[in-house]
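Hello forum,

I keep getting stuck at the same step: I have a sequence, I want structure tokens, and every attempt I make locally crashes halfway through. Rather than fight my setup again tonight, could one of you with a working pipeline run this one for me? It's a single chain of 167 residues.
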Amino acid sequence: MIEMRVAGIAIDAVNRSPIVLLKDGTERRALPIYINQDQAKAIISALENQKPPRPLTHDLMANTLEVWGMVLERIVIHSIQDGTFYAVMTIRQGEIKKDIDARPSDAIALALRTNSAIWVMEEVIADASIPVDRDADEAEQRAFREFVANLRPEDLIQGKGYSTGEA
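Reply #2:
Ran it on my machine without issues. Output:
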């Protein structure tokens, strides 16, 4: 799993649909997830730390968790099927933990309100993410190819920074 953060909300230029954009810690990969207008508003209000005069749905859920001594430990976006993302929220009360199925947009909106971690499975990132910094990706690939091309068998012998695993 890779921890991600909400980078913001974007608008698809073609169909004008909102997209929540998650980025990894290195800011090398971005995961765009299409959402609707209401979900975008809920995420934006959390990002901007806006407090409505009366609790909205996600605020109500966060308040309920707090009052009952529950903690949203993390959300995990675990799969994508036919273009639809799936997530679970891990909620803990004392020693008891439960995973609850959720739409990623709802889970993200709640995670932002409770300062909870947002995780994405590697398979989802491999299937649906987009590169953010192509130049850095290409430079890293070039450096790795050069390293492998210049690698000699004697470089792998103990004493050169590598171990054979034998005692």
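The first helix runs from residue 37 to 47. If your local run keeps crashing, start a new thread with the error log.
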